[in-house]
Amino acid sequence: MSEFEPNIVAFLCNWCSYAGADLTGTTRTRYPPNVKVIRVMCTGRVNPLFVIQALRQGADGVLISGCHPGECHYLKGNYFARRRFTLMRSLLEFIGVNPLRLRMSWVSASEGKKFAGVITEVTKDIKKIGPLKSFKREIL
Amino acid sequence: MGKTKVGVYICHCGVNIKYSVDVTELSRFASELPNVSVAKDYIYLCSDPGQELIRNEIKEFNLSHIVVAACSPWMHEPTFRKVLKSTGINPYCLEMANIREHCSWVHEDSEKATRKAKSILAAAVAKASLLEPLEEKEVDVIPAALVLGGGIAGIQAALDIADTGFKVYLVEKEPSIGGHMMQLDKTFPTLDCSACILTPKMSDVGNHPNIELYTYSEISEVKGYVGNFKVTVKKKPRYIIEDKCNGCGICVSYCPVEMPDPFNMGLSKTKCLYIPFPQAVPACFVIDPDYCRYTLRRECKQCDPVCKDLKAIDLKQKEQFIEVDVGTIIVATGFDTFDPALKPELGYSLYPNVITGLEFERLSSASGPTTGDIMINGKKPKNVVFIQCVGSRDKSIGNEYCSRVCCMYTAKQAHLIKEKIPDAKVTVFYIDVRAFGKGFEEFYDRVKQEGVIYIRGNVSEVYKRGDQLVVKAEDTLIGELVEVETDLVVLAVGMVPRNDSSTVNSLLKLSQSSDKFLLEAHPKLRPVDTASDGIFLAGCCQGPKDIPDTVAQASAAAAKACIPLSQGKVTTEAIISQVDEQLCRGCGFCVEVCPYEAIELKSIERYGQTVEVAAVNEVLCKSCGACAAACLSGAIQQKSFTDEQLLSMIASLGEYYE
After folding, report:
1. Fewest CB within 10 A of the end CB: N or C in chain A?
2. Which one of B109, B509, B658 has the shortest CB-CB distance to A73?
3. What is the CATH number of the domain that holds A45?
């Protein structure tokens, strides 16, 4: 049997992490292909519903990545995201999903190398946690 | 709106995408996706024939939405939006699938890359099918600019904009404009006197009818957006009334307090009632509140009665806040020099005859503490050692970059020593000599001809043997340890980002690159733009550069800043939030989270009842989407990033999981 390859959805903010991911590409830094990106203007846009839905639709992990604290393009969107992140983790725990499936990181537009590192690490960690079996599409 | 018909266009980007993504397979896959009428792949979609292909097919297939699978939207989204616009469909009915930066460039395995590209593309198609046409609005531009920083970059930018005919507010932190360039003695490689070439420009600034100068000032608040910025300038009290002071300087002799002269890098003393340097603009004195006995302890006041005719001294002056309205902003905040105390092995903090390059400039300058004689402890040094790359190209202190000016300023300073003390022995320790500019190599050659000794090697230690300063290094060309006895060590300190830059950066929402200098919008093609529309960069705040490069960049930034001012109109953000008044419960969560106070509650009649619902101020909304995430009923949505659109992407990704 081939090794388990996790599916991960990443919500990246347009100004920092998405641009940082672009830089990873420009500098041809390699990382595993498990993460699929959804661009939002700000991590403050990420509705907890998106995280739950991503997991229900078969993702094994979700990453939210935005500007460093204090550097949000919209002043405080990443703080909203950070607060929601802690709440969402307790919610996941409450409904029986390993809260570590939800990850958050700060990657600026100049941190291409860091982005590759974050993706590699998140992929490895979610791989270790294993496939999310109990929360899949049938509920929808 | 008619039926949703999506056209999908997949770019090979030459081989950039094609070499790891199977574009033929991707195009076949796309043609079978829901709502897709046509899917094609093409070698260069951004080329004229590529754009023409999309234009023709929009007409031929009567397409309503377009997906371009190519590079990042940061790159070509504007290009393809224009293609849509020129064909008569709304430019916001476009979705970019980033299969280059996020796929082909980062994944080598063709099978895996193609599979990921399919997922990315399917999600983009899912979103595109739901995109709605958006309306762009135009607003008037305030025909004025704010330039932040009055060094050579800010001066040049301000003069260029003012000469174009627009109003400029020039804000400088120090009591006079001039910046670091004013402190330099001669400039490389032409040996022009720095002050002589700068002062005419400074006085032009002072006299220009279109320039309003705020010295000893900082910005404390920035509101608004391109075309309509509202900036609050905080004018610190200088305790001298600018309009009244005629610069006679009689008061200075009555001031009893001495302090280190900041202009001379503390190499000499000045009174705490001082003018930074004789050519200062404005030619107005200032009192340093950290030293003045009156501002500190309410005693002294000896200067006050002296100025009895003009009454220019006002020890009760308070800081003032002035609000200015501008269309564009140029950031020219400059740099700091590297603090060599961070490299203790070089002995800067221990020995007074170890100085920095900038301190040497003051020592060598006719306006400096020794009126241009190079004297250390009252004696002319006979042996001088220059150490290059201090704080640059040095991973141990986290500065990997080259500061670009130190090789040449060292060569110039070595030349000045030879000129002023012909029998002095001058040794330069270098890693590489980078003499890349116009006339630089020729100048470097000249300095070597003059007898300056260049030794390739990194200095390990500066120490004292008896009374003698010794520089120890490895000569890496012959592989031997060398020790040079010296009377003076000059450290060629590099440039670092200003330590007080964080306030400005956060007020203007500027990003930094990994070296902590300010980040330009594109390293090649938008070198003076920032990610924020209407804000531009000039000079060393963006990265180390010499004077000609700074002047060129400042003029470039000025030209860019004048574009919206000349056009007179800018387009406002189309991707804003909108409220479904039928769904809104009037809870006001969105009002609370909005960082721009762009949402308020208003009363409407609904089913015969008066209820409160949210209302978005379309000019203030900056499109972050925080309100949409906070809304419990889904009533407020961010256009082009609605719940429905993003959930459709999530669902689509789910379809193609392994």
Report:
1. N
2. B509
3. 3.40.50
Put simply, the answer to whether B116 touches A33 (Cβ < 8 Å) is yes
B650 neighbourhood in chain A, CB within 8 Å: 9, 38, 50, 53-54, 57
User: Which conformational region is residue B149 in: left (phi greater than 0), alpha (psi within -120 to 50 degrees), or beta?
Assistant: left
Question: Is there a contact between B593 and A15 if contact means CB atoms under 8 Å apart?
Answer: no
B449-507 tens-digit pLDDT: 999 999 999 899 999 999 899 999 999 999 999 999 999 999 999 999 998 888 888 88
Which residue among B106, B575, B626 sits closest to A31, beta carbon to beta carbon? B106
Tell me the pLDDT tens digit for each residue of B544-593: 999 999 999 999 999 999 999 999 999 888 999 999 999 999 999 999 99
Apex B402 CA angle, B401 and B405, nearest 5? 145
Chain B residues whose beta carbon lies within 8 Å of the beta carbon of residue A26: 101, 105
The 10s digit of each residue's pLDDT in B369-421 is: 999 999 988 899 999 999 999 999 999 999 999 999 999 999 999 999 999 99
Q: Out of B101, B593, B622, whose CB is closest to A21? A: B101
Sheet with B65-70: strands ordered across: B36-42, B6-11, B65-70, B94-98
Size of interface A-B (CB pairs under 8 A): 148
Q: Is residue A1 part of a domain?
A: no
Alpha carbon of A38: minimum distance to chain B alpha carbons (Å): 8
B577: closest chain A residue by CA: A45
Q: CATH number for the B6-134 domain, one of 2.40.50, 1.20.140, 3.40.50, 3.30.9?
A: 3.40.50
- The helix (H) or strand (E) run that includes residue B413 is helix B406-420
Question: Cα separations (Å) of B433 from B185, B228, B428, B443?
Answer: 22, 47, 10, 12
Q: Which residue has the tokens 């390739």?
A: B456
Q: Which of B74, B531, B657 sits opposite A58 (nearest CB)?
A: B657
Contacts of A5 in chain B (CB under 8 A): 658
Interface membership of A87 toward B (CB under 8 Å): no
Over B581-646, what HEC string results?
CCCCCCCCHHHHHCCCCCEEEEEEEECCEEEEEEEECCCCCCCCCHHHHHCCCCCEEECCCCHHHH
Report the pLDDT averaged over residues B2-28: 95
Q: Tell me: domain B336-496, CATH 3.30.160.270, correct?
A: no
Evaluate whether B6 touches B64 at the Cβ level (below 8 Å): yes
- Nearest Cα of chain A lies from the Cα of B79 at a distance, in angstroms, of 18
Q: What is the pTM of this model?
A: 0.83
Whether A45 sits inside 8 A of B112 (CB atoms) is no
Assess whether the region B144-236+319-334+498-569 and the region B336-496 belong to the same CATH fold.
yes
